[in-house]
Amino acid sequence: MTSQTQTTTLNKAQQDYLGKMSSPMMFWLGMLSKLPTAVFWGLRMKTINLEKCEVTIPYFWRSQNPFKSIYFAAMAGAAELSTGALCQLAMAGKGKFSMLVVDFRAQYSKKANQKITFTCEQGLELNEKIDSLEPNGTDQLTMVSIGINEDGDEVARFHVTWSFKRKS
User: Fold this and answer.
1) CA angle 109, 162, 73 (to 5 degrees)
2) Under a CB-based contact definition with an 8 Å cutoff, are residues 105 and 65 in contact?
3) How far apart are CA 141 and CA 143, in angstroms?
4) CATH of segment(s) 7-166
5) What DSSP line would sit under 99-118, residue for residue?
6) pLDDT per residue as tens digits for the range 103-151
7) From the CB of residue 136, how many other CB atoms can be counted at a distance below 10 Å?
8) Which one in 12, 20, 89, 155 has a CA-CA gap of 20 to 30 Å to 54?
9) Residues 87-100: tens digit of each pLDDT
């Protein structure tokens, strides 16, 4: 797991968040308490920094459907985590926010029968949006997470629209 970000651009809360998400044990404990299906499906944080987040999901009995591919909901969970972790990082140490998924679309292009890595590379765009929110202001961002298999083929593309509100 890598978290390649210059610490000079991160506030203390963001540094702490990256530390927790970068530690396999802390990630596992956090997911167990907040998102236990992530633990069941075997999701792993591969990379997280201000620019992007990568989450992997293995192909094994707990993530498999009866058609011998990864269950669509398990892939959706990995895709959502790759976008949601970027949201949490962007908001860390910047005041109180609420966030909610308000739209979710998926496109599947290939059978997911091996480990898939979901990548969202909209961290910088997201940070600009979060930083520009005024107190009690709201905004939305549709974030794209692309699932690539071990052969380098795109398996799925998820569009997750997050709504943000900065609390006063």
Assistant:
1) 40
2) no
3) 6
4) 3.10.129.10
5) EEEEEEEEEE-S---S-EEE
6) 999 999 999 999 999 999 999 999 999 999 999 999 999 999 999 999 9
7) 9
8) 12
9) 999 999 999 999 99
C-alpha angle 48-92-166 in degrees, rounded to nearest 5: 125
Give the start-to-end residue ranges of the domains of the chain: 7-166
Name the pLDDT band for 168 (thresholds 50, 70, 90): confident
Q: What residues form DSSP beta bridges with 48?
A: 53
φ, ψ of residue 154 in degrees (nearest 5): -70, 130
Q: Contact, 145 vs 120, CB < 8 A?
A: yes
